[in-house]
Specification:
Layout lengths: L1 H9 L1 H12 L1 H12 L9 H14 L2 E5 L5 E5 L7 E6 L13 E3 L2 E3 L7 H16 L8 E6 L9 H6 L26 E5 L6 E6 L1 E10 L3 E2 L9 H16 L8 E10 L5 E2 L2 E10 L2 H24 L9 E10 L2 E2 L5 H12 L5 E5 L4 H5 L4 E4 L4 E3 L7 E3 L3 H16 L7
Parallel strand pairs: 3-6, 3-7, 7-17, 8-16
Antiparallel strand pairs: 1-2, 2-6, 4-5, 5-19, 8-15, 8-17, 9-13, 9-14, 10-12, 11-13, 18-19
Length: 419
């Protein structure tokens, strides 16, 4: 793979594409800031998606369209061979009332979502421009996709739709004229551009099971009805039990279980009729996730049973309802796979170290389907991710996009690039 990367770095077409990325760095930052300033809460990505569609068309991609769930995609290359998907997610974790104005502080851009994922989107647009301007047409077609619903409660909705992972009738299929088709052709690979950075290569997808456990009971006055089964007490027992389960940090494959939100009750002098807690259960391994998920659900049931056993005789028992809030599949692209090796070789060729990592990204879905996938940062440095003080510094920013160019070129055609 190192030899392939060396040949690509010397190829005049790749050199031209790299020159475009580096010379248009200021334009990339302008696009990044402009996209970041368009609010895109999960579930309300439409305005940002519409702008990305315009940028895809201006970059020269073919058959640009917005699909049924809001994903934006456009094509580069000749139809026929299985496609390589290049993706970046549209949504942010911030609600519609958050001010997403972008501020400049020297070389630093500051604003909610400026890195995650305005950087990935801007890199996707720049990469499309670079390939079309340099007249690079890989042997394998490329599908550029800006996806919805990657963050939190979005539950990877966009990429699941794109890869037909919901059992529906759409997916990556017929090229150009109808990018989504009822009988999809299996994609060749996927590269997700997510946030900043040049070192990490995410090749393991952290799966997650997310749900709300809701305890209901008769409620009543906190003095007069004392002794009835208390939903809030059951929530406390459940939270403590989950914390005990999660205490084993040495569990391999690494798995976690966290109570992330708690609610319920109406007043200081009332036993609540309802109380709930939200849980986020994660693992790098699908079987380990299933086991831990089962253990957490058993703990929730025991909390209900324990509280019911303590209630005054003749009073109604608590009930427990578990409401699914999302499920992200686990997956892995082996480090020996050519896609991962191409990313390692690209880092080496550009003088970067590399870190093979696990995360939860759009790449989880193709990994879970056995389709090779990785997620890469799109250059630069960032901090305060998922906070309103989020920032991006463009140090080695262009080289992050060059890395993506080399990886894509290596797996999309290598020495068989055509013009």
């Amino acid at each position: 793979m190192d030899a392939t990367l060396s040949r690509l770095l010397a190829d005049p077409r790749i050199r031209a594409a790299r020159a475009h990325i580096e010379s248009e760095d200021a334009e990339t930052l302008q696009v990044q800031a402009a996209l970041s300033a368009i609010p895109a809460p999960t579930g309300a990505e439409g305005p940002r998606g519409a702008r990305v569609a315009e940028l895809f068309a201006a970059a020269g991609l073919a058959s640009v369209k917005i699909d049924d769930v809001g994903n934006v995609h456009g094509w580069l290359g000749r139809p026929g061979a299985p496609a390589i998907v290049l993706a970046a997610h549209l949504d942010t974790v911030f609600s519609a009332d958050v001010d997403v104005t972008v501020r400049r502080d020297g070389a630093r851009l500051e604003g909610p979502g400026i890195s995650d994922n305005a950087r990935g989107l801007a890199a996707l647009v720049t990469l499309a421009r670079a390939l079309t301007r340099a007249r690079v047409t890989p042997a394998r077609p490329l599908l550029f996709a800006a996806t919805v619903g990657e963050e939190g409660a979005g539950d990877l909705r966009g990429v699941k739709h794109l890869f037909n992972a919901n059992g529906g009738d759409s997916g990556v299929g017929a090229q150009h004229a109808a990018p989504l088709h009822a009988s999809p052709q299996r994609p060749y690979a996927m590269v997700a551009l997510d946030g900043a950075g040049v070192d990490r290569i995410v090749h393991r997808g952290i799966g997650a099971a997310r749900y709300r456990a809701r305890y209901r009971g008769p409620g009543g006055h906190s003095w007069a009805a004392f002794g009835v089964a208390n939903p809030a007490s059951a929530v406390g027992r459940a939270a403590a039990a989950v914390a005990d389960l999660a205490a084993d940090a040495t569990r391999l494959p690494r798995s976690t279980a966290a109570v992330v939100r708690i609610g319920g009750g109406t007043g200081l002098n009332s036993i609540p009729q309802e109380a709930w807690l939200d849980l986020d259960v994660r693992s790098e391994d699908a079987d380990a996730l299933t086991r831990l998920d089962g253990a957490v659900r058993a703990a929730l049931t025991r909390a209900c049973e324990t509280e019911n056993a303590r209630r005054v005789a003749g009073t109604p028992p608590l009930t427990l309802e578990i409401e699914p809030l999302g499920r992200r599949p686990s997956g892995i692209t082996p480090r020996t796979h050519p896609l991962v090796q191409a990313a390692i070789a690209a880092n080496r060729a550009l003088g970067f170290t590399h870190e093979l990592a696990a995360s939860s990204t759009d790449a989880n879905v193709p990994m879970s389907l056995g389709i090779p996938a990785i997620a890469l940062g799109a250059g630069g440095r960032a901090g305060d991710t998922h906070r309103t003080s989020e920032w991006y510094d463009n140090e080695q920013g262009p080289l992050g996009i060059v890395r993506a160019l080399l990886v894509v070129a290596a797996v999309a055609g290598g020495d068989d690039l055509i013009t």
